Amino acid sequence: MTRLDTDRIRAARRVIDPVFLDTPLYRCDALEPALGCAVSIKLETANPVRSFKARGTELVASRLAGTSSPAAVCASAGNLGQALAWSGRGRGLDVTVVASRFAPAAKLDRIRALDARLELVDGDFDTARERAAALARYEGIRLVEDSLDIETCEGAATIGLELVDSAPSFDAVLIALGGGALATGVGHVLKSFAPGVEVICVQPLGAPAMTRSWRQRRVVTTDSTDTIADGVAGRRPIQAVLDDLLLVADDAVLVQETSIIAGMRLLLEHAGLVVEPSAALGIAAILEDRDRFAGRHVVTIICGGNVDLPAYHRWTGAPPVHGP
Amino acid sequence: MTRLDTDRIRAARRVIDPVFLDTPLYRCDALEPALGCAVSIKLETANPVRSFKARGTELVASRLAGTSSPAAVCASAGNLGQALAWSGRGRGLDVTVVASRFAPAAKLDRIRALDARLELVDGDFDTARERAAALARYEGIRLVEDSLDIETCEGAATIGLELVDSAPSFDAVLIALGGGALATGVGHVLKSFAPGVEVICVQPLGAPAMTRSWRQRRVVTTDSTDTIADGVAGRRPIQAVLDDLLLVADDAVLVQETSIIAGMRLLLEHAGLVVEPSAALGIAAILEDRDRFAGRHVVTIICGGNVDLPAYHRWTGAPPVHGP
């Protein structure tokens, strides 16, 4: 049994602002000649924070809103912080986000614009996690830990409900793997209601800690990460999340940076979607193993679209946009 | 009274494939500093044909599907043809699309990929209209006339229902104006259920026929068009559509090409959306008249996202994407 509970996930739908729910799910024919399989898009970028993360922060913020001094701090690669800032702003929460100073500027700018306090650390996401934990202890406020805190997994799991409620005709779901909230949340629901659907997690070769942990069935950490997929670049998997992942994932695969970039290009050229690298992991996995997916119907969750445009243009082949 | 009927529009929702319904509607804070007003996006591009046109073609195709030799022909700037091809493919319809050979290649390629017969004419959209009408007469098949055929207006009007059902807090809706199906359909519903919301149609200065007609309250044609907004570039407004537009539009404004391009850039940079020029008309209208919208809450319908990427990159400031 995972830490997730289906009744709680269904209840979560009543708490989350509807603007984040019932996101588009559609076959994308135009991608299929390039990929050799049927592909459906589950699009999590057409909302005020351009990622799925607000599904979880809506739960966190709504529970905190009733307390006497509502405040929260989180470490974030950028999307969780933006989502927590959004959810907190509407509920009078005092939100602090700790992020790496190497996080995409677009994400950091949006966090500031949403009135959160932003603290930058000289280090990566796991450095930010330590700092956020210290801040929470010192200030006595709620620490929101992505993937460990059950709300972050339950929020992500509501995507799974939407997939199974669509009367799925698909054979596999490709899920970006970072801390594991998305994979364990969606995976839990799929295994409960559509056990025949393959749950495939995808992580960059340059940030393989959770995938290695899943394969070895124990937490494996790495000393560093090296990937453009900033949203999934963690070094220290959480045991409780790994335990859940072992129960719901059918596979975890690692993909190369060049495949992530090719995936971003395909999504731009054939689907008209601007996605961040983490959101192209599923397409990257198909590109690296066409035989596996040939003739099958695959869903890929487009989990975020927050990019620095100059980097995005570099990746997709065009130089930075200049002013008018 | 317009030609539209609210009961028929509500009934249309039960016929249209749900993949085209209940599209995202969300406040886009990130756009607001650049525009000086509150902006909500109604996003019609996250579906298999990347435009709102399938709402109408679903109605056309479902009615034709029961007939003895189901076939249809339409003239299209690209999006209607793609939508009719999609709706027809799923229902065994024989679809012919007549388009200008100057239509975006991406749109023409998608029409072909959806198994429609594509006939190109040496001329513009209105030349294609004549040819489609001739084909329909010659072959004795259904001619689908955008904006004139009530299904195309009713399909578009379902967007209006979604706007008013969202318990609108907005003051104005900005609607791309071409043939008029979108404007009359959405406008009819807004005037019926949210009469205080201003209905503002936006057309390019380079294709002003319908706006001039609306202002003069009679059909005014032009000899040519000169705009990158291919989706709204008609020269010959239809009297019956103009009659409806006169009843539901509060204003019709014309915008410059540079504003359309600036709008596309803003939507890319601050909303992460790749849109075709017609879909940037609303943002262009705000840019050209900030005082009018200052402090108000405006909805803009992002009606389509089918672009030729080389042209799109040229407009938004970056050169064409090159292969890996």
Describe the structure.
The structure is a homodimer of 324-residue chains. In chain A, helix 4 (79-89) runs parallel beside helix 5 and helix 7 (150-165) crosses helix 8. Chain A starts with 5 loop residues before the first helix and ends in an 8-residue tail after the last helix. The first copy, chain A, is an alpha/beta fold and 324 residues long. In chain A, the strands form two sheets. In chain A, strands 1-2-10-7-8-9 form a six-stranded mixed beta sheet. In chain A, strand 7, helix 8 (181-193) and strand 8 (198-204) form a beta-alpha-beta unit. Helices cover 43% and strands 16% of the residues of chain A. Chain A has helices at residues 6-12, 32-35, 54-65, 79-89, 105-113, 125-139, 150-165, 181-193, 209-216, 239-248, 257-271, 281-288, 290-293, 309-316; strands spanning 25-27, 38-43, 71-76, 94-100, 117-121, 142-144, 172-176, 198-204, 251-255, 297-302. Chain A folds into two domains: 6-50 and 150-316, 3-Layer(aba) Sandwich (Rossmann fold), CATH 3.40.50.1100; 54-144, Rossmann fold, CATH 3.40.50.1100. Chain A is globular. Chain A is built from 14 helices and ten strands. At the A-B interface, strand 1, helix 11 and helix 14 of A face strand 1, helix 11 and helix 14 of B. Chains A, B: One of its GO terms (biological process) is L-serine catabolic process. Chains A, B: This is Threonine dehydratase. Chains A, B: Residues 20-304 form the Tryptophan synthase beta chain-like PALP domain. Chains A, B: It comes from Sphaerisporangium melleum.
